[in-house]
Amino acid sequence: MKTILKNGLRAGITFGIVFIFLLLIGFINVGSTMIGDILGTNVQDQVPVNNLLITLAILGLFTGITAKSGCGECKWWMALLGGLTAGLVSGILAWLAIWITGTLSVGGAELQTYLPNLDPEDMAFLRFYSTPSAAANTYLIYLSLSSLAGAGLAWLLSFKNWFSRGWDTAKTKVSSWFEDKNVSDVIHNPWATAVILAIVGVALYFLPLTWGSYWNYIMGTVAIYILLGLGLNIIVGYSGQLVLGYVAFFATGAYTFALLTAPTPHGIGLNLWLAVGASVVVSTLTGLLLGLPILNLRGDYLAIVTLGFGEIIRILIKSDLLTDITNGPKGVTNVGQPNWFGEVFNDVNYMHLLMLLVLIGLFIAKRLKDSGTGRAWIAIREDQTVAQATGINTYGSKILALLLGAAFAGLAGALFASRNQFTGPEDFTLMVSINVLCIVIVGGMGSLPGVVIGAFVLKGLPELLRELEDYRLLVFGALLVVMMIVRPEGLWPAASTHFKQPSKKQPSEAAVEVKQ
Amino acid sequence: MKFKRFLVLLFVFILALSACAPQPVADPPSDEADSLAQETEAATEEAATEEAADDEAGLPAACEEDEFGCAVIPEGETIKVGMGAPMLGDYSMFGIDISQAVALALQEDDGFEGWSYELVAEDTGGTPEGGAAVANKFVTDPTMVAIAGHIFSGSTDAAIPIYDKAGFPMMSPSATNPDLTQKGSAVFNRLAFTDAAQGEAAANLLFNDFGFTEIAVMHDGGTYGQGLADVVAATFEDLGGEVVAYEAVTPGEADYVAPLSAVDAAEPEAVYFGGYAAEAIVMMNQWSQAGLDDVLFFGCDGTFGVEFTDKTGANGEGAVAASLVPPDSEEKTAFDALYAENFPTEAGELSAFTWSSFDTGNVLIAAIESVAFVENGTLYVPRGALVDAVRNSDFFGLTGSVKCDEIGECNASGPAWYQVVDGAWTPLALASD
Amino acid sequence: MINKLKNLKLTPGLILRILVGLGVLVFLGWRIYQTAFGEGTYGPDTWMRFLIAGLVIGGMYALIAIGYTLVYGILFMINFAHGEVMMLGTFAGYFALEAFAAIPAPAAAGPDLNFLNAYPVIALILTFLAGAGTSALVGLLLERIAYRPLRGAPRLIPLISAIGASIFLQNAAQLLFGPQRRQYMNPDILWRGMGWMIPVGGKEVMLTYTGAFSFVLSILLMVALFILVKRTKLGKSMRAVAENKQAAALMGIDVDSVISKTFIISGILAGAAGVMWGIHNGLFNHYVGFIPGIKAFTAAVLGGIGNIPGAMMGGMLLGLLESMGPALLGLDFQLKDVIAFTILILVLIFRPSGLLGEALTEEKV
Fold it and tell me: Do residues C100 and C123 make contact, with C-beta atoms less than 8 angstroms apart?
């Protein structure tokens, strides 16, 4: 009894605050408009107030479900009581918010000076075009009732942990399907493998033809980020070196390629395939230059040094000092594009090339992981001191990982510059490094399918979230936090990693684990 | 624990919403696709294989003849004008302001034969990469007819080849890099005067009208600022003056006392700054801390704007800047009132491009209406003809005459110079006048 | 020492380090010689201006850097969202000042005065309380929501969570308060751009009131923090938790509560730095925390992360490097971050755990 009230209270306060936050960032309005768009009830950009009620009902349902989920296996009246408490508490908070902002807005206060989403027109909509107190009462009633309904619904369905359970079930099903004798016979039959590979190959060949230029562009970006992710995965995922300036190698690759092939500023016009090779070599050398002096630094020092190195490269590229060499902030235009039987590469050709390279990259990364070097990296990642004691040349192995990672970035950079026909310093900000790191972590450190999934989630998802326009990055940030809490081992963890679910471990144990 | 679950729920909820949100593409009236996803697919395919879809409808002859075909807008759809702009992040005020002004122009128009106009502004983050992504998205939309933008030169540069291939006319109110019109693109036009024209005019003004012989040149390290600064420095030295200090600063910072002091040590008579108001305001506020009290601050059109005077107050007194902003006129007053009524900010508060953006919208409308036609209840806009129509625009707007030359420079009048007097931008009065 | 030298193996890395070190020393010596005895581009007045600018910004960096260092010392995690904590403090201070400016003062204080100018000291204290309080609250919530569930996870996991929180907070602030830059409403006695004129080398150099105020306040806060950590019971338990969480828990210290308090303290310092930032620099928007955050992180590492005096020194040093470095080396001011990061790399190559070293030993991390 007491717990359910407490849970209700907590859910109510949380959702009340969420409601106020959504109100202040204008999402209640946008959400109502979006519901109108989905239902097709918007007439001439006029959103009917019913949509607002639907928005409120959705919010209320979630309040109720949350309140109920706190009590686990409880009686129906307890669930309802929790839902009602939560609904009332969040309703009261909403009542206060609407009443205060509504009264101020009606009174002519210029709220939008400080809170730009509260302009009078939107406020009138949020008030159902009536008086503040009447509107506030509607909010209270609607939130309470829908929360009650939500709790009831949750009790009926009594779903629990459905999110992670659903995921795990799906994964178990898929893997058990693979382990099934008949299936595994087919899989291990060389002919079947050939057929499957052929089907995949044909599918990969034909998919870009149907995508159209926009999706080819997005998928191309995803593919480039997969290459980047594979490279950083070698550094961070395999050998455990936290590098925050990976963009430096990407930038050197892109600029090497661009400067060697573009007509301005140097007009070298090198053969494109040689230029790709040169990009990879220059990036690798940059990695060597950076790696030799600093790779014996410990985790976080390495992070900030590499972060600084990334910034140094970007600032130098755009600085007046090197304008004559790099073309400064203007960037390099008309970067060379490869030919295919006399025709300049179009988006489909690029997509094919990128897919081919991603497959080769995946193959190389897989072979590296299974090689002796790969095991040495993983030993270093797990415990450097022990690795050293077993006779592994830790310094050399770490340098090698950095060089290979840098080579991948150089390749990705060359393709990036060539495909965009342009490269400029602002393409290589700190956010690129952070994005690639997130790809590796979100996918699952050291896991190759993880990198692919991570790239789709991090570069593809924001494109899908474009529909949410202004809220895109907000959701993305929240998503990263939620991801880390719900699935810290990544979406597709590597099979052999030693990562565990975070648990109430002893601090010293945690400290041992984080030791590189 | 509960919070965790709540976050999950919130996330799923938002995802669900985002997945369901319809995409800004046309669905033909005959299309009976039962899910939104299918609709979008159908629309995309339609764009990719335009002929296939058009054959059924029976294309008007003008579309068959047109090099790029037609934009096909069924009844109930809007005529879409696209914009790639930084809508989020550090420079979002430019995107927000420019998109608001263009949207206002489109919204104020009564439409064409029952079709109304709509602005689709997408975020480019101001980057070339983002510009190309947005352009690639726009060209797949059959109801998208023209592009107001892009907003930053880098993002525009990356987008031009994509629109070139698809035959989408562009009119940028703010991309000022001189190179953009030098590439022989048929689709790109701009209302902004080029950095080269502005830089030369500024150097002339400094040397001839102000009579300075020693100036310092600073810029913010961006394409725009550096381009301007280089032109000013070169022209000023050609004229016979001396550039005693040339300094670049890191954009986005809040403290420029150190670089300003370094400039002060060279004792210039004036400091030319190429860059945006964000940095110029900080510099002006630290002008006397750096010992530059009696040195003239000479800015560019990026530093012009109400924000500059608002946020520099007495410190900004005497600063000079260039602008597209028209001198006060009845139309301008009416527009300013309209803008303030529709948006939380004043015209010109977020950027100096408000008025040219409004003109951009109107120029595009005029061009669209000169070539569009209705047949069988569907609106057709021949793309190739529209490209020519925009290039041949002859329009008189808030910022004066809009007439494009053969490479797409549409601002015939050049920059107007303004100076801060008593906390307000007033047309520059020179002693020699 | 000699034994140490005998045991040195000449690895390629070491050779490179020695070469780099020699190169840097020669170059620096040459530049300093040139600046001091050469043509003398900059007079003493200009150097004085550089010094003032460097110290003021260095003080703010130091305050933010302490936040990084405190959290790192206890949790071994980089609180990437710390800059955003500062940003929200800046916003809170702004709203407080706007509110005080809108409240009319009682008639007794003088005609036509608002509260801000009638009682500037009280208003400023309240503003700082608002800024520090907001940041402390944000820091506390951040720890509860984004970091606590991840305690004990591999160290990259909380880092990604922190990056996510940083992106979230930045965009939330943009959506809540709009993208435009806002300007701090200072009381008249502390108006920006006013200051004492100090004669240096025949010229007058301005020491702004806001600059002096920020610098003094940041020093006071640092002293207060130092006393807190060294003298109070809370400080003792913080040090104990940093040393060994398990042992601290056995000694009856509530580890969770100490961690929460650490976030509150670092939030207070960041909030105060945020308000100072607003008062001294005036302009800000939702992006204000990002660059100072990165810089302060650099400063913390420069001094030796986890080491409080190290963070103070690192902050000041970074501020001075940024204002004087380009002039000293005869480079563009555009390159100041390049110089700062290069110095950081050089310092770490030769002193792998920062200038003052870590407060922790290698074994504990």
Answer: yes
